[in-house]
Specification:
By secondary structure, this protein is an alpha+beta fold. It has helices at about 5-15, 20-30, 75-80, 85-95, 115-130, 135-145, and strands spanning about 45-55, 55-65, 70, 75, 105-110.
């Protein structure tokens, strides 16, 4: 007794392609990877540090070569921070060491508000300056730029509206 071909086996028989055609398809689909040339130039030397304030974190890099400017998230600090008091906060540690025109500062800042970001940036720049020259430490420490401000927002407690604000109390 021979088995008769069912509908499923007929479909499988139709779908199968000869081996030569499969090989040709594989050859056609293979891609040639282009050769990548290695970078021959030397990247700029920099000093890196992290500054923090509340929930703001600033990653700062100091370069001695290139245009002498302060960039925050790829924008000049005057455009990123709207108010003059933030500008003064950002460059305070550089001005303290008389090195505002000596470095190119590139930084990435996340979290917090503008004030916290400006202070985190000042903290990061001060730390990077100390890595650049350890003699700067005494003056920056005396100014308070190297101290991490530990004050954080207090968490909300259950039964209260905020951290300490209780619901209004009613006598009767």
């Amino acid at each position: 007794m021979k088995k008769t071909a069912t509908k499923k086996t007929k479909k499988k028989a139709k779908e199968k392609k000869p081996k030569k055609e499969k090989r040709l398809e594989k050859i056609k689909t293979t891609k040639v990877k282009p050769k990548v040339e290695k970078l021959k130039y030397k990247p700029d030397r920099y000093w890196e540090a992290v500054g923090r304030r509340k929930t703001a974190v600033a990653r700062v890099r100091l370069f001695t070569q290139g245009e002498k400017e302060v960039l925050v998230n790829e924008k000049p600090y005057q455009k990123y921070f709207s108010d003059i008091k933030f500008w003064q906060t950002v460059v305070a540690s550089l001005k303290k060491m008389n090195s505002l025109e000596r470095f190119r500062v590139v930084s990435k800042v996340k979290g917090g508000g503008l004030s916290a970001q400006a202070e985190a940036l000042r903290h990061g720049i001060a730390r990077a300056l100390v890595k650049f020259n350890p003699d700067f430490r005494v003056r920056l420490k005396k100014s308070g730029y190297l101290t991490r401000d530990p004050r954080m927002r207090e968490r909300k407690k259950f039964g209260l509206k905020r951290a300490r604000r209780a619901p209004q109390w009613k006598k009767r």
